[in-house]
Amino acid sequence: MKNTTIFTRAYLITGNDTPPKPDCTVVVSDGKIQDVFCGNHELSSTDAMLFDLEGKTLMPGLIDAHVHPGNVEMYLHLTAKLPPAVYVHRVTRTLETDLQLGFTTLRDAAGLDEGFRAAINQGLIKGPRLLLCVTPLFQGQASDTPDPRNSLGICPEICDSPDEVRQAVERTISRGADHIKVFADGEVISQSKKDDAKPGQPKFSIEALQAAVETAEKHKAYVMAHCYSAASVQNCIRAGIRSIEHGNLMDEETIQMMVTHGTYYVPTLCPFDDKSIDKAKAHFDERTLEKLEIVMQKGKTTFEMAYRAGVKIASGSDILGPDQYLKGRELALKAEIMGPMGAIVSATRTNAELIGLADRFGTVDKGKLADLIVVDGNPLEDISLFERGLEKVLFVMTEGRIQKNHLLPL
Ligand SMILES: [Zn+2]
After folding, report:
1. For residue 200, what are the CA distances in angstroms to 55, 180, 183, 227, 264?
2. How far apart are the CA of 21 and the centre of ligand 1, in A?
3. What's the 377 CA to ligand 1 centre distance in angstroms?
4. Domains of the chain, each with CATH number or no CATH
């Protein structure tokens, strides 16, 4: 196999929030981007795989910073009932599809077994690079029996006091977690049948959240927090949590605190989109619908407030259940407020910064790992191309390895 791949005549979006450029050449070898130049240039390598990208866009691989490939059904108790082999095949299919959609990195937001990461790294299955939190932290008493998230034995860590939280983080890191997920607020779809908390109701003390952050940082990891209300988000910001997930009920004061502390915001617009809500209404029970009502209207306006205030906006689709192939819609929903370039930067460079790996990937720059995708057309003119990623993303490369190729080499 040829070691060098050269893309020519590409319309280039670097992910750096710089104007796109036509007629660009990108040279990849040894898994890295070796050169990027635009306009006429003599190509030195003759023994390379060449792709002419006229009419197509070359850009960084997409990153989704809030996913649940492990939640194959909408409700966890239904997921947990699936026979293990069926569960594994269904998760594998989602991961393979995500790569085909152009997602080269995923940050799991609860419950994906580290075996999937190992299977991808060993070449047994195809999938994006996975960053995992393995076992999320859920507030409760030591005597509580945790509800399983799947049939492979993954359960949340139940903890409450700072000491219990420290131990839970240590155990989670030892299971291979890259980051820690805490549920610092009530949920719309509760993962525990015994949980009566409503969205907006803070969970964990600031001291306990601080204990999570300190213990994670000892292992060069960080904490992401599920929360909705100003009170729970403020607790998380004060505790030093790196990213706020959802945040639908935040106010101006809280948003200003995020700006001051440099906290990332992952607004997760997909689950609160009209199309998803219509579908959810057909499936959810009354209790879940009541809780959805509390948060569903405010997601978009809060996101707009945060964006206008200058909060660092990362991108996560947070799709549960069988519709996970719709991840690309998150970019279209973001673009309604941030514009298409803003949405792309959010899902590439900003997400790479959030996960602490921006020095390795997230932009098309010399020296970065070659995580690249080719899109048929121009996503700045039609951001909905990502919603049709299976058809419109023609080529996917991770660390220089071709993962999908609907292009013909010259
Ligand atoms: Zn989530």
Report:
1. 47, 21, 11, 7, 19
2. 35
3. 31
4. 4-60+362-405 (2.30.40.10), 62-354 (3.20.20.140)
CA–centroid distance, 49 to ligand 1, in Å, is: 40
Residue 107 Cα to ligand 1 midpoint, Å, equals 11
Burial (CB count within 10 angstroms: exposed 0-12, middle 13-18, buried 19+), residue 85? exposed
What local confidence, expressed as pLDDT, does residue 145 receive? Answer: 86
Residues in the chain, overall count: 410
Q: Which whole number is the average pLDDT over 209-213?
A: 98
**Amino acid at position 280, single letter:** A
CA 318 – CA 329 distance, rounded (Å): 11
The DSSP string of 100-136 is HTTEEEEEE-S---HHHHHHHHTTSS---EEE---S-
CA of 134 to the centre of ligand 1 (A): 13
Q: How many helices (H) and strands (E) does the chain have?
A: 13, 18
Convert the pLDDT of each residue in 28-75 to its tens digit: 999 999 999 999 877 776 689 999 999 999 999 999 999 999 999 988
> E strand or H helix at 261, and its extent?
helix 252-261
pTM to 2 decimal places: 0.96
| Among the listed residues 140, 214, 203, 133, the one whose alpha carbon sits nearest the alpha carbon of residue 175 | 133
Task: Retrieve residue 4's tokens.
Answer: 């060098």
pLDDT in tens, 231-272: 999 999 999 999 999 999 999 999 999 999 999 999 999 988
